What does this fold into?
Amino acid sequence: MIEPTLIGRCVDCGRLYSAETGLPYCRECALARDEALKRVSDAVERDNLRTTEGIAERTGLSRNEVRRVLRELPVLARYVDQAEVCTECKRRAPIEGSHLCLQCHIDTLHELRTASDAAYDDAERLEDEPEPAPPPTVAQMLEAKRARMTTARSNPIAAQTVKRYRYL
Ligand SMILES: [Zn+2]
Ligand SMILES: [Zn+2]
It folds into this structure.
């Protein structure tokens, strides 16, 4: 006697498959569902996303796929769409006692720091403005004179001027 083979038609892709698992879909579709489910729950639980749109963007799934997963997982669906969202990104859950999510808090802090760094740099630049040079010391004056003489020697016109002055 031949054993009847359990054959089913996958509800997702419509292909015939060996339905020994008892699931209404084939192995490939079961894996795809597992993967989608994992991505959506990561997006909700780990990334704190609270809108279908945000989850779709994060997971690379279509909005319909996200909705399907949420329909099958009411535990996750509770957190999505009807939940309060961050006023800044409108995607993630706000942190306790705030209307911003953690990421937007970090971004805001970062922007503030960048702005204050820029202000601090400006202030430093003002402080670094060169102070009026102190009056030259005797040594510096002698050094400057020697430099002028050197130039004069290598420059015939200047040398003449020097020579003429010597007779004054
Ligand atoms: Zn299938
Ligand atoms: Zn946010």
